[in-house]
Each structure stands twice: as structure tokens, then as C-alpha cells.
Design brief:
The structure holds 2 protein chains of 2 kinds. Chain A is mostly helical. Chain A has 2 domains: about 50 residues, no CATH class; about 230 residues, MetI-like fold (Orthogonal Bundle), CATH 1.10.3720.10. Chain A contains 15 helices and no strands. Chain B is of the alpha/beta class. The longest helix of chain B is centred in the N-terminal third of the chain and has 28 residues. The N terminus of chain B is likely disordered. Classes of the chains: A mainly alpha, B alpha/beta. Chains A and B meet through α5 of A and α3, β7, α9 and α16 of B. Chain A: It is found in: Cell membrane. Chain A: InterPro entries: MetI-like, MetI-like_sf.
Chain lengths: ~300, ~375
Amino acid sequence: MADIALARAPETARQVRQARMLSVGARCALPVAVLLGIGFLAPMVAILAYSFATPRSFDVFRSFTLENFASIFDPTNTVWLSFAWSVGFALFTVAILAVIAYPIAYGLNAVFGRWAGFISVLFVFPLFVSENVRLYGWVLFFIKNGVLDGTLKWLGLPGGPEVLYTPGVTLFGMAYTYLPFMLFPMTLGLALVPRDLVDAARDLGAGRLFIWREIELPLAMPGILIGMLLTFVLAIGATAEAKILGGQSIIVISHDIEIAFTYSQNWPLGSALAVVVSVFIAALTLTALSKLDLDRMLGRR
Amino acid sequence: MAGISRRSMLQGMAAGAGALAAGPLLGTGSAFAAREKELNILCWEGYNSAQVLDPFREKTGATVKAESLTNDPTMINRLRAGETNTWDLINVNNPWARKVMLPEKLIKPLPKAEFEPFFAQMLPEFKWPYKWAMSEDGADLLGMVQRFGPYSFVVNTDKVSRKTAEETGWDLFNDPALAGKYGILESDDWNVFNIFIVAGIDPFKVHTPDELAKFEETAKRVFKGAKLIGDIASMNQALISGEIDLHLTGGTYSVSPARADGHPNLRAITPLKGPLAGGKGGISWIEVTSTVNNPNLSPLALEFLKYVQAPEVAHTVAFAEGTFNPVAQMGNKACFDLFTKEELDAIQWDSLEEEMARSVEYDIVPDYDKALDIMNAAKRLRG
């Protein structure tokens, strides 16, 4: 590199100035870089710095200790339970949504025709209402003498099942909340399957299941995987469902982080927990993305 | 457009960038210069409501910002983290001003002569010199009092009568027959107090390892037996719908909105007896609002403290959105007369005096951190 730089050593003052300046591209990217630096990196750095600060103190950048991480990985600490529940909930949410969203995505691409746009809007619409409001709505639906229970009793039936404040209803809430995040990447993925290939396979005598397994699924896989990844990442950080619908029958990891920052006033511990979760999610995301062909997903049809 | 050259454009951009860079400095300058029209309040919900703040804004033409938080340690830590430069008033529960914030120089005393006369207008228990408004040595006035109330637990009297609840007291939560029929309000500092009390231990002292072991066992059992943990709205909703019959941690502050909404069968209970000092059965809270030790305190801070003493404003504070509470200013007939029969009923005025008498006042648990960690671990075992 030094040789090349020397070989192209600028001669005039203007050339020197130009050589010292950033390239046009870099200069154009500067505002975005500054914005990302302030809005994205700075909080991350603060969290990382806090995770090495003395427990229950605000001595950020002034102290260094591994105590917070040691206490998280201490075998007597039960915080792993919260982490396990969060991962479990996220995995189940992904599995349930993969099964639910696939037929809808297929329908949006191949069955609903001119209604597809309208049906898409129906799935997007709930996103305009605050998640908490929607979840409280479900509480009113499931609560004793609420919409479901009250209606069934009014019809002379024994009443609704007691599902509120259980882990099951938390999972239901998560599947409900994250459906669009699975559905739309999956729809995009399925849209990338060339119709001709399916027709050709059928002409050559392939059965419906064979076409699905050998053509549709592999070609739509980037979209499906991105949907799964997005849903998993969002679901592992979910708190509202476990709190509002689940009545805190389960303490999820993001709730533990929140407790550390509020009632415990142990910002270093909360930060260390956040770092551990972030590293886990980042590792998972990077591994998954390295196996995905994004060019195929976003470019070639 | 013709007048704009590339050079003038660049000059303009440079000037703009300069102004942006200097912005924070200019801001600091103006903050030092013109705080007469600015007031920042860190408070519990209620004081941040438009009903309370708008008339003050109109009267003074000031920009008033209020941020509400729902636990004391968070607010105090905001000051510790350096926000004494930002806030003018802090509104927290009784012990923090004299035991923590004054010794740590987070707040500064009020001019006694200006504020002492207001205490003469308050309910008898708040008469001058009121303990929690004063410094430990009694020399300084540290804040003004307003909202208060008993805070132990809440029952649906259709399911558990007031008499049974008061007589059985905290042992209700030791009764296996009630497992799955109660909720726990998500208010962890109070839950630490109350788990200690359910375990038969006074929370406001240093605890022995045996007592902490008892605390742990009780926390695990009580949290396991809870049908739900949630906020005030969730507790009231669960009580009204019949999902639960009672909930741990709660009082006038939490149940008054439901009572005002036509559910007088929901009632805050203060047990007749308990393991607290003097054999008392419950805990009460009293809010103290103090001036922050801000190097450039807004003169409106004192103005606001006087403003909320007026009978009409005190009544508005009592019935600000979200939660309804008695106020010390009800000792003034002009203020008391503003309360309707329904409002008095919502705040359980009929039994307020005796319930306050049966309660010890909110205090600081010396080994709170240890107890809270134990309680958080117990919560995780619910699943």
C-alpha cells in the first residue's frame, strides 16, 4: 500500500488537499455515519461501558469489573430461567407463525388475486394501534365475564376457558403480535418463485407435494428464513405479552433487564444482561445471514 | 435564486453548522439567564396532569415540564446521575428528603417563614413542625406535603368482608385456600415491605440471616400463589371481573379510581395489627415535594409550591387523572368543602383517620437490595 501511495504521490498543493480529503462517497455518507454514531453506537457504547461498572453504581467509565457478568453466570443465579423462557417463547412463536403464515402468504401470491392488496392491508392495520392497547383488548376478550366468557354464558353455555395469566396465552399474544413480521418476508419469498418453474414441473409429471418440496420451498427459503429471523429477534425481546396477557406468570429476560434498571437501580447488572442477550442475538443473526443469499432474495426474480 | 452563489451557499452552511455546534453552549447560557419562565418537575403521576399544570402555565406564562415516574429510587437516582441541573422540584415519599436527599445535597431547604403558615391550614397530623417535612435536626424545612394515604392491600368485600380482612390481616396471604385468588401489584419496593410483613417480620430494620431465609420462603410461596402480577389498572380490572378476590400492595391510591367508577365493594384495607413498630398493621405514605439543589433554581419552584396549597388547586391535585387521594390541605374547610360525597367515598374518607393511625409511615429498608434480589429470584420461580 505504501508503495502505491508513493507512486501516486501528489505534486501540487491542490492534489495534496484532495488526497487528504475523504472520497465523495465517504463525504456523502458522513451525515448518515454521524447520525448512526450518535443514535445507534453511542447508546450501545454506554450500555457496554455500564456492564463493566461497579454493581449498583453509576461509575461508568470510571470503574472496571467483571462482577456483573460473573453474577449472571453464577450457577445460583436463576436469571437463566428468564433467558430460557424467552428463547423458548421465541422458538415456539417462530414455529407457530411459520405454519400459520405460510398458507396466508401462499394465498396472497396465488389465490386471493385482486383481493390480495386489501387482505395485506388488513394484516398491516393492527400495527397502527399501540401494541399495549391491542393486548389490553385481548385481556378484555379473555377475562372472566369478558367478551368470550360473557357471550358464552349469555348463550347458556358454561363459559369460556380460563386462559388468562398463563404461559399459553403469552405465547398466543406473541404469535398475534408478530404475525405480520413473519407474513410479509414470507410473501416476498414466495413471490420470487417463478411461475414457469412450477408449471414446467407439473407438465413433467411432478405431484403437488413434490413441487412444494423441491421447487417452492427452496426458492422461497430466503424470505422464509428472513421472516423467521426477524420474528425470533423481535420475540426474544418481547415483554408486553408476558406482562399484560400472561400476568407475569413468566418473567422474561427483557423484563429482568427492566427490573434491573428500575426497582433494583442496578444499571450495571441490567447492562450486562443486555450485553449477553445482544451478543447471543447478534451471533445468531450473523450466522443465519451468512448462510442466506441476499442477492437472490432482493435482486433476481 | 440568482442571488445565491455557491460561495454564499457554503458560507450559509458554515454559519449554520457553527450555530449547531454552538447550540448546546448557547442553550446553557440562556438556561442560566432566563429560568424565570421555566419550571421542571420530577414527580409521581398527578402533578404532571394538564388539570394541575395548565392553570399555572396560564398564570405565569411559563414553560412547565413534568415527568412522572412510579418509584422513588429511580427519581432520586436521576438527581444522583447529575440531573440536579435540570429539575427544580422533586416529589417523592416521606423519608427520602430528610434521610437521603438532604445529606447527599440533592435538595435545598425552603424559606421557613414563607411556608410555615401553610401548615396551619393542614389536617391536624401535619401541623408544624411536621416530622417528614423537616430535616433530622429540625432546623430546616425540606419540602411541602400534600397527598398521602394508607397502603397495605385491597379486597373485594363481596368475597372477603372488611371485618375478616382487617382482623385476619396479612395472614390472608398465608392461607393456602386463597392461593390463585389474589394478585400482586407490580410495585416492588412496597412488595419487599409486604412480603416481610406477611412473613411476620418488621421490614424497616436490618434483618438476620434467619429472617431473610423466612423472607425468601414467604416470597416464593406468595408469588407462586398469585394469579397475576400487574399494574394498578390490571389489578382493578381483575378485581372487578372476579378473576381475583384481593391483591397484595394497594390502598386508596390504587383502588380509588375503581371506587369512583362505581365499585364501592372494592376497598383498601389496613389490618388491625401486624409485626410493624407498635404492633401496627399497615404502612402509609406521605409525599414530600422539595426544591432540587439546582445551581440555577427557577424562581417558579417556590411559586408552584405555594400555588398547589390553594384550596381549589389542592382539590384538583387530589383528583388529578389516574389516581385519587386525600390531601393534607383538607384540614382547611374551604378545601374540604370542594369534595363531593362521591369523592370522599372514593378516597375512603370514612375510615381514613383510623387507618392512618393503624399504619406506620413509609420508611427505608436498610437491606433493601438484598431483599429485592431474593424477591426477584422468587418471582422467576412462578413459571
